[in-house]
Amino acid sequence: MPIMKIIKPGFQSSIQDLGRYGYSHLGISASGAADSISLQVGNLLIGNDQNSAALEMTLVGSEFYFDSETIIAITGSDFQPTLDGIQIPLWETVFIKSGQTLRFGATQSGARCYLCIKGGFVVDKILGSASTHLLTGIGGYKGRSLMKDDEINFAGSDTKNVKQQHVKKEIVNEIMSNKKIFVTKAPQSDYYSTETLELFSSSTYTVTEEANRMGLRLIGSTLRQINNKDIITEGVSLGAIQVSHDGNPIILFVEHQTTGGYPKIANIISAHLHKVGQLRPRDEIQFSFVSIEKAYKLSMDLESLISPESLISI
Protein backbone atom coordinates (compact mmCIF):
# COMPACT_ATOMS: atom_id res chain seq x y z
CA MET A 1 0.00 0.00 0.00
CA PRO A 2 1.33 3.51 -0.83
CA ILE A 3 3.06 5.39 2.00
CA MET A 4 3.44 9.03 2.96
CA LYS A 5 6.47 9.49 5.22
CA ILE A 6 6.67 12.36 7.71
CA ILE A 7 9.96 14.23 7.38
CA LYS A 8 8.97 17.11 9.67
CA PRO A 9 5.85 16.78 11.86
CA GLY A 10 4.91 20.46 12.26
CA PHE A 11 3.33 21.87 15.41
CA GLN A 12 0.25 19.65 15.74
CA SER A 13 -0.69 17.52 12.74
CA SER A 14 -3.26 14.76 13.08
CA ILE A 15 -5.61 12.56 11.07
CA GLN A 16 -9.21 13.78 11.20
CA ASP A 17 -12.53 13.10 9.55
CA LEU A 18 -15.92 14.61 10.50
CA GLY A 19 -15.83 13.08 13.99
CA ARG A 20 -17.43 10.34 16.07
CA TYR A 21 -20.91 11.17 17.29
CA GLY A 22 -23.17 9.45 19.79
CA TYR A 23 -20.66 8.79 22.58
CA SER A 24 -20.97 11.87 24.78
CA HIS A 25 -22.70 9.74 27.43
CA LEU A 26 -19.42 7.81 27.66
CA GLY A 27 -17.43 11.02 28.10
CA ILE A 28 -16.11 11.04 24.52
CA SER A 29 -16.71 14.21 22.53
CA ALA A 30 -16.99 14.12 18.74
CA SER A 31 -13.48 15.39 17.90
CA GLY A 32 -13.08 15.58 14.10
CA ALA A 33 -11.82 18.42 11.92
CA ALA A 34 -11.73 21.82 13.61
CA ASP A 35 -12.74 23.33 10.26
CA SER A 36 -15.05 20.65 8.92
CA ILE A 37 -16.05 22.73 5.89
CA SER A 38 -12.49 22.97 4.54
CA LEU A 39 -12.09 19.21 5.04
CA GLN A 40 -15.32 18.43 3.21
CA VAL A 41 -14.52 20.75 0.32
CA GLY A 42 -11.03 19.27 -0.07
CA ASN A 43 -12.45 15.77 -0.23
CA LEU A 44 -15.15 16.71 -2.73
CA LEU A 45 -12.56 18.41 -4.92
CA ILE A 46 -10.71 15.12 -5.53
CA GLY A 47 -13.77 12.89 -5.68
CA ASN A 48 -13.63 11.50 -2.14
CA ASP A 49 -16.50 10.91 0.22
CA GLN A 50 -16.90 14.04 2.36
CA ASN A 51 -15.99 12.05 5.48
CA SER A 52 -12.71 10.61 4.16
CA ALA A 53 -9.79 10.81 6.59
CA ALA A 54 -7.52 13.80 5.91
CA LEU A 55 -4.62 15.52 7.63
CA GLU A 56 -5.17 18.60 9.79
CA MET A 57 -2.22 20.93 10.43
CA THR A 58 -2.21 23.67 13.06
CA LEU A 59 -0.29 26.98 12.87
CA VAL A 60 2.93 25.40 11.53
CA GLY A 61 2.77 22.78 8.79
CA SER A 62 4.58 19.54 8.10
CA GLU A 63 6.83 18.04 5.42
CA PHE A 64 6.02 14.77 3.65
CA TYR A 65 7.61 12.33 1.20
CA PHE A 66 5.43 10.26 -1.16
CA ASP A 67 6.57 6.87 -2.43
CA SER A 68 3.74 6.65 -4.99
CA GLU A 69 1.83 8.96 -7.27
CA THR A 70 -1.49 10.33 -6.09
CA ILE A 71 -3.81 13.34 -6.21
CA ILE A 72 -4.27 15.80 -3.36
CA ALA A 73 -6.16 18.96 -2.47
CA ILE A 74 -5.06 21.53 0.10
CA THR A 75 -7.73 23.67 1.75
CA GLY A 76 -8.19 25.94 4.76
CA SER A 77 -5.60 28.54 5.69
CA ASP A 78 -2.53 29.33 3.61
CA PHE A 79 0.49 27.43 4.97
CA GLN A 80 2.60 28.25 1.89
CA PRO A 81 2.68 24.74 0.41
CA THR A 82 5.47 23.77 -2.00
CA LEU A 83 6.06 20.61 -4.02
CA ASP A 84 9.78 19.94 -4.54
CA GLY A 85 10.36 23.60 -3.71
CA ILE A 86 7.80 24.97 -6.17
CA GLN A 87 4.77 26.79 -4.75
CA ILE A 88 1.43 25.07 -5.37
CA PRO A 89 -2.12 26.42 -5.06
CA LEU A 90 -4.78 25.82 -2.44
CA TRP A 91 -8.35 24.79 -3.28
CA GLU A 92 -7.25 22.92 -6.44
CA THR A 93 -6.43 19.38 -7.49
CA VAL A 94 -2.68 18.79 -7.36
CA PHE A 95 -0.92 15.79 -8.93
CA ILE A 96 1.85 14.15 -6.91
CA LYS A 97 4.55 11.97 -8.54
CA SER A 98 6.39 9.15 -6.82
CA GLY A 99 9.41 10.48 -4.93
CA GLN A 100 8.16 14.04 -4.52
CA THR A 101 8.29 16.05 -1.28
CA LEU A 102 5.44 18.25 -0.10
CA ARG A 103 6.31 20.97 2.42
CA PHE A 104 4.18 23.39 4.44
CA GLY A 105 5.37 26.47 6.32
CA ALA A 106 3.77 28.65 8.98
CA THR A 107 0.25 29.94 8.50
CA GLN A 108 -0.27 33.19 6.65
CA SER A 109 -3.93 33.56 7.62
CA GLY A 110 -6.01 31.34 9.92
CA ALA A 111 -5.15 28.50 12.26
CA ARG A 112 -5.55 25.29 10.26
CA CYS A 113 -4.79 23.75 6.89
CA TYR A 114 -6.04 20.44 5.45
CA LEU A 115 -4.32 17.90 3.23
CA CYS A 116 -6.85 15.64 1.51
CA ILE A 117 -5.60 12.70 -0.54
CA LYS A 118 -7.37 10.69 -3.23
CA GLY A 119 -9.08 7.74 -1.52
CA GLY A 120 -8.22 9.03 1.96
CA PHE A 121 -5.59 8.01 4.51
CA VAL A 122 -5.88 4.43 5.66
CA VAL A 123 -6.15 4.14 9.45
CA ASP A 124 -8.31 2.00 11.72
CA LYS A 125 -11.66 3.44 12.75
CA ILE A 126 -12.44 3.65 16.46
CA LEU A 127 -16.13 3.95 17.35
CA GLY A 128 -16.89 4.51 13.70
CA SER A 129 -14.43 7.34 13.08
CA ALA A 130 -10.83 7.81 11.94
CA SER A 131 -10.49 11.07 13.88
CA THR A 132 -7.68 11.53 16.37
CA HIS A 133 -8.98 12.42 19.84
CA LEU A 134 -5.79 13.85 21.28
CA LEU A 135 -6.98 14.13 24.88
CA THR A 136 -7.86 10.44 25.17
CA GLY A 137 -5.28 9.09 22.72
CA ILE A 138 -7.69 7.20 20.46
CA GLY A 139 -8.21 7.14 16.71
CA GLY A 140 -6.15 8.50 13.87
CA TYR A 141 -2.52 7.42 13.68
CA LYS A 142 -1.68 5.78 17.01
CA GLY A 143 -4.02 8.19 18.78
CA ARG A 144 -1.58 11.10 18.62
CA SER A 145 -0.12 13.94 16.58
CA LEU A 146 2.30 12.92 13.86
CA MET A 147 6.00 12.51 14.61
CA LYS A 148 9.16 12.43 12.49
CA ASP A 149 9.57 9.19 10.49
CA ASP A 150 5.93 8.12 10.91
CA GLU A 151 4.64 6.36 7.79
CA ILE A 152 0.96 6.62 6.92
CA ASN A 153 -0.74 4.47 4.32
CA PHE A 154 -3.04 6.05 1.78
CA ALA A 155 -5.33 4.48 -0.78
CA GLY A 156 -3.78 3.96 -4.17
CA SER A 157 -5.41 5.89 -6.99
CA ASP A 158 -5.28 6.05 -10.76
CA THR A 159 -4.24 9.57 -11.77
CA LYS A 160 -5.10 9.08 -15.43
CA ASN A 161 -8.11 10.84 -16.90
CA VAL A 162 -8.58 12.94 -13.75
CA LYS A 163 -9.75 16.47 -14.46
CA GLN A 164 -7.94 19.50 -13.05
CA GLN A 165 -10.48 21.25 -10.83
CA HIS A 166 -10.60 24.21 -8.46
CA VAL A 167 -13.08 25.77 -6.08
CA LYS A 168 -14.71 28.99 -7.21
CA LYS A 169 -13.00 32.02 -5.69
CA GLU A 170 -16.22 33.54 -4.37
CA ILE A 171 -16.99 30.33 -2.47
CA VAL A 172 -13.49 30.23 -0.95
CA ASN A 173 -13.97 33.83 0.18
CA GLU A 174 -17.32 32.96 1.76
CA ILE A 175 -15.96 29.89 3.55
CA MET A 176 -12.92 31.73 4.92
CA SER A 177 -14.81 34.91 5.83
CA ASN A 178 -13.99 36.46 9.22
CA LYS A 179 -17.34 38.13 9.68
CA LYS A 180 -19.24 38.00 12.97
CA ILE A 181 -19.87 34.62 14.50
CA PHE A 182 -23.59 33.98 14.95
CA VAL A 183 -24.94 32.45 18.15
CA THR A 184 -28.28 31.39 19.59
CA LYS A 185 -29.38 31.69 23.20
CA ALA A 186 -28.31 28.89 25.55
CA PRO A 187 -29.83 27.16 28.63
CA GLN A 188 -28.56 29.83 31.04
CA SER A 189 -28.96 32.94 28.87
CA ASP A 190 -31.62 34.11 31.32
CA TYR A 191 -28.97 34.27 34.05
CA TYR A 192 -27.84 37.49 32.37
CA SER A 193 -29.65 40.81 32.05
CA THR A 194 -30.72 42.22 28.70
CA GLU A 195 -27.95 44.80 29.06
CA THR A 196 -25.32 42.08 29.61
CA LEU A 197 -26.55 40.09 26.61
CA GLU A 198 -26.30 43.27 24.53
CA LEU A 199 -22.80 43.87 25.92
CA PHE A 200 -21.81 40.34 24.91
CA SER A 201 -23.09 40.81 21.34
CA SER A 202 -21.64 44.29 20.87
CA SER A 203 -18.16 43.72 22.30
CA THR A 204 -14.96 42.57 20.64
CA TYR A 205 -13.28 39.57 22.26
CA THR A 206 -9.68 38.45 21.87
CA VAL A 207 -8.62 34.81 21.66
CA THR A 208 -6.04 34.11 24.38
CA GLU A 209 -3.04 31.76 24.23
CA GLU A 210 -5.23 29.18 25.98
CA ALA A 211 -6.81 28.03 22.73
CA ASN A 212 -6.77 24.46 21.44
CA ARG A 213 -9.06 21.74 20.15
CA MET A 214 -10.70 21.44 23.57
CA GLY A 215 -11.72 25.08 23.86
CA LEU A 216 -10.84 28.73 23.37
CA ARG A 217 -10.63 31.18 26.26
CA LEU A 218 -11.55 34.74 25.34
CA ILE A 219 -10.91 38.05 27.04
CA GLY A 220 -12.95 41.21 26.69
CA SER A 221 -16.00 42.81 28.29
CA THR A 222 -16.75 41.14 31.64
CA LEU A 223 -20.08 39.31 31.80
CA ARG A 224 -21.83 39.21 35.18
CA GLN A 225 -24.90 37.22 36.19
CA ILE A 226 -28.01 38.85 37.62
CA ASN A 227 -27.74 36.59 40.66
CA ASN A 228 -24.59 34.57 41.13
CA LYS A 229 -26.36 31.25 40.70
CA ASP A 230 -24.52 27.99 40.58
CA ILE A 231 -25.76 25.24 38.31
CA ILE A 232 -25.60 21.51 38.72
CA THR A 233 -23.02 19.99 36.39
CA GLU A 234 -24.79 19.04 33.18
CA GLY A 235 -24.08 17.90 29.64
CA VAL A 236 -22.53 20.47 27.32
CA SER A 237 -22.51 20.68 23.54
CA LEU A 238 -20.05 21.58 20.82
CA GLY A 239 -19.96 25.35 20.39
CA ALA A 240 -21.39 26.16 23.82
CA ILE A 241 -20.04 29.43 25.25
CA GLN A 242 -19.55 29.14 28.99
CA VAL A 243 -18.83 32.10 31.26
CA SER A 244 -16.17 31.42 33.88
CA HIS A 245 -16.06 32.91 37.39
CA ASP A 246 -13.93 35.80 36.11
CA GLY A 247 -16.71 36.82 33.71
CA ASN A 248 -14.87 35.84 30.51
CA PRO A 249 -16.30 33.51 27.85
CA ILE A 250 -14.93 30.07 26.92
CA ILE A 251 -15.89 28.43 23.62
CA LEU A 252 -16.19 24.65 23.97
CA PHE A 253 -14.72 23.08 20.86
CA VAL A 254 -14.32 19.71 19.13
CA GLU A 255 -12.58 17.91 22.00
CA HIS A 256 -14.60 19.60 24.74
CA GLN A 257 -15.40 17.96 28.06
CA THR A 258 -18.86 16.45 27.87
CA THR A 259 -20.14 17.93 31.15
CA GLY A 260 -19.63 21.30 32.78
CA GLY A 261 -20.78 23.50 35.62
CA TYR A 262 -20.31 27.01 34.24
CA PRO A 263 -23.42 28.81 32.97
CA LYS A 264 -23.76 29.00 29.18
CA ILE A 265 -24.65 32.38 27.74
CA ALA A 266 -24.86 31.32 24.09
CA ASN A 267 -24.14 28.58 21.56
CA ILE A 268 -22.40 29.02 18.22
CA ILE A 269 -24.58 28.01 15.29
CA SER A 270 -23.47 24.93 13.35
CA ALA A 271 -22.94 26.94 10.16
CA HIS A 272 -20.25 29.03 11.89
CA LEU A 273 -18.36 26.37 13.84
CA HIS A 274 -15.76 26.09 11.07
CA LYS A 275 -14.91 29.77 11.63
CA VAL A 276 -13.91 28.92 15.21
CA GLY A 277 -11.53 26.28 13.84
CA GLN A 278 -9.58 29.03 12.06
CA LEU A 279 -9.18 31.32 15.08
CA ARG A 280 -5.62 31.91 16.36
CA PRO A 281 -4.39 33.39 19.63
CA ARG A 282 -4.74 37.20 19.52
CA ASP A 283 -7.45 37.08 16.84
CA GLU A 284 -10.42 39.34 17.57
CA ILE A 285 -14.03 38.19 17.17
CA GLN A 286 -17.56 39.47 17.67
CA PHE A 287 -20.80 37.60 18.30
CA SER A 288 -24.33 38.27 17.12
CA PHE A 289 -27.54 36.59 18.33
CA VAL A 290 -29.83 35.03 15.71
CA SER A 291 -33.02 32.98 15.94
CA ILE A 292 -33.14 29.19 15.70
CA GLU A 293 -34.96 29.62 12.38
CA LYS A 294 -32.15 31.82 11.03
CA ALA A 295 -29.51 29.37 12.28
CA TYR A 296 -31.27 26.50 10.49
CA LYS A 297 -31.52 28.49 7.24
CA LEU A 298 -27.80 29.37 7.35
CA SER A 299 -26.98 25.69 7.85
CA MET A 300 -29.03 24.75 4.80
CA ASP A 301 -27.44 27.56 2.78
CA LEU A 302 -23.96 26.32 3.71
CA GLU A 303 -24.81 22.75 2.68
CA SER A 304 -25.98 24.06 -0.67
CA LEU A 305 -22.86 26.23 -1.05
CA ILE A 306 -20.45 23.32 -0.69
CA SER A 307 -22.35 20.85 -2.85
CA PRO A 308 -20.27 19.48 -5.77
CA GLU A 309 -22.65 21.07 -8.25
CA SER A 310 -22.01 24.61 -7.00
CA LEU A 311 -18.46 24.75 -5.66
CA ILE A 312 -16.22 23.19 -8.32
CA SER A 313 -14.96 24.76 -11.55
CA ILE A 314 -12.98 22.91 -14.22
Explain this structure to me?
There is one protein chain. 15% of the residues lie in helices and 28% in strands. The chain contains 6 helices and 23 strands. Strand 6 and strand 7 form a beta hairpin. It starts with a strand and ends with a strand. It is globular and about 65 Å long. The longest helix has 14 residues. The mean pLDDT is 94. The protein has 2 domains: 173 residues, Jelly Rolls (Sandwich); 129 residues, Cyclophilin (Beta Barrel). With 314 residues, it is α+β, with helices and mostly antiparallel strands.
Unreliable sequence segments: none
CATH architecture descriptor name of the largest domain = Sandwich
Question: Outline, from the CA principal axes?
Answer: globular
- Reported by name, the CATH topology of the largest domain is Jelly Rolls
Domain tally: 2
> What's the arrangement of strands in the largest beta sheet?
21-14-15-18-17-20-13-22
Helix segment tally? 6
String of helices and strands: EEHEEEEEEEEEEHEHEEEEEEEHEEHHE
Report the sheet with the most strands, covering strand number, pairing sense and barrel closure.
8 strands, mixed
Q: What is the count of β-strands? A: 23
Average residue pLDDT:
94
**Radius of gyration in whole Å, from Cα?**
20 Å
Terminal CA distance reads 30 Å
Kindly name the structural category: alpha+beta
Helix share, percent: 10-25%
- DSSP strand content: 25-35%
Under CATH at level 1, the class of the largest domain stands as Mainly Beta
